[in-house]
Amino acid sequence: MSLKKKSKKKTDATAPSTPAWHPNFRNYERLPDIKAVRTTFFINGFAVLLAIAILLFTCYQEFNLHAKRSEIASWEEQIAANQAASSAAIAQFRAFQAAEKKIKEVDTFLTTDLRLSDFLLRLGAILPDHIKISTVDWRDDLLILRGTVSGSPDQASGYASSLVALLTEDEVFSAVFESINLTGLARNPVTGMLAIEVHLRFNPAEEGN
């Protein structure tokens, strides 16, 4: 009896231990993600952050564009509001330049001894085409113009009267001559034109020139 027990114990002690084994049929791709923080959370979070960043950038660009449009509209309104004042200022400046030019012409004419050549140049600049001056008679304080007026009888009479007004209203002649009068008006039977005579009397200050 004792031999059997000894033999059994020896057999149990010397028998090799074989680990338990079984085939692994698990499909890891189909298994659920059991990590504390799933991978899809990071992917979805990154996608959400990217979408928010794009949205914020778009809003910022739209805000800047709106601000630029508002600024441009404000500038256009200001330009339109100032356009009328600017045009008026330009017109006034041009009128001032024209008036200044006339004043300089008169000043130059008055501060210089009156010469016949200067008078004729000024007269030729304002004389209408239908009036021709044939003679100029200068007598001390009196200057006499003689010439002819073309046109029908009624037109010629009107042209002759307008010549006196033209000479009287001229900036230079009105400052030099005291009086301007139409003293002669007659029809020339040979030419059929109207002969005129105009007297221009100098101002007393101009008599010595």
Head-to-tail CA distance between termini: 177 Å
Order of helices and strands: HHHEEHHEE
Largest sheet: 4 strands, antiparallel
How big is the Rg?
57 Å
| Name given to the CATH architecture of the domain at 116-206 | 2-Layer Sandwich
Structural class: alpha+beta
Strands, total number: 4
In percent, how helical is the residue content?
55-70%
**Shape estimate:** rod-shaped
List keywords for this structure.
rod-shaped; 5 helices; 4-stranded antiparallel sheet; 209 residues; alpha+beta; Gyrase A, domain 2; 4 strands; disordered N terminus; single chain
A few lines on this structure:
This protein has five helices and four strands; from the N terminus they run H-H-H-E-E-H-H-E-E. The protein is of the alpha+beta class and 209 residues long. Strands 1-2-4-3 form a four-stranded antiparallel beta sheet.
Give a verbal description of the structure.
The chain is of the alpha+beta class and 209 residues long. Among the domains are: 40-72; 116-206, General secretion pathway protein M, EpsM (Gyrase A, domain 2). It contains five helices and four strands, in the order αααββααββ. The protein has helices at residues 2-14, 39-111, 116-126, 153-169, 171-176; strands at 131-139, 142-149, 177-187, 194-202. Strands 1-2-4-3 form a four-stranded antiparallel beta sheet. β1 (131-139) and β2 (142-149) form a beta hairpin. Mean pLDDT is 75; it is low at 1-5.
